[in-house]
# Entry
Amino acid sequence: MRVFQILLILAIINGSMVYAREQPPARVIISKIVFQKVAQNRSFIGTLYYERISHISSEISGLVTRINVRAGDRIQKGMPIVHLNTEILEKEIIFHQNQIKQTELHITHSKKNYERMNSLYKKSGISEKDYDDARFVYQEALLKKMSAKTILEKLLIQKRKSVINAPFDGIILEKNVDSGDWVQQGKPLASIGSINDLFIKVPVAETLLKFISIGQSVPVTINAYNKEMTGTIDNLSPIADAKTKNVFIKIRIPMLTKVAQNMSATVFISTGSKQKLAMIPRDALIKFQGNDFVYTIKEGKAVQLPVNIVTYQGNRIGADNEHFTEGMPIIIEGNERLRPGQSVTIVGEK
# Structure
């Protein structure tokens, strides 16, 4: 029994010594705090939409033989979208092409006859009526050819218009027809949103307009994918809401894939005057019990500091905490599993 007690005490002492050992130094990459004058901002929820939408329709009537797209497909300018049946049209084209050839033969024959009659008429070898008849036949042949060419050109235009092409690079928002459908002239076939004209509209209070300027860059997050990007304030809506007095701000964003009109986005917009703030890379932020913190380094050990975020500026945030100083090292990589007081080794700086 005494031996067992001694072994138990030794095991407890040994375990305590293991826990008392300091964790090995963590390898980290740092950045240094800089101070900058920036405006305070806060988040607003906006809605994605396509500023430029084309509701394409057919200029001619016909039977749909093929449609090359589905709702949600990306398309390029000039890409064929809908094909109409041209079987009868092509027969008419061949008929009028042959008619033109026949008319050309008639022109050749009537021209020779007219030239012969003209020569005889000058020598008083024929009557004026015979001369006029020959000239009439020749001129009539020329007009028939011109008329046949006009009809042929019209048919060729109809053939070209039997294939409806994309007017610009975009995405199919809606498809209204399918193969086998008969479409009338002017019937909407599909709706296309221009991928180069993707915007977010955000309602803001009229009192904030003094802090907003056209061309200003703003941080944007596409909520569905938690995707961060930078947008540009493009314009303001010319009409404010009659009840709330909110004004819609139009924010242009880069081309995106897998987005839908009316999806939500978070936009950070200026809500105050500029103030001097500590600019910290967003990679440095860590969450602890619902609050934001960063790690700095003092005497070779990680020290956790709270962060009061005043503004978002792309991949950085602005904080107004008094404990931040110019040039203070902030850990931006290797901070995920750090613990306060843990030894660190700096292996790089960004």
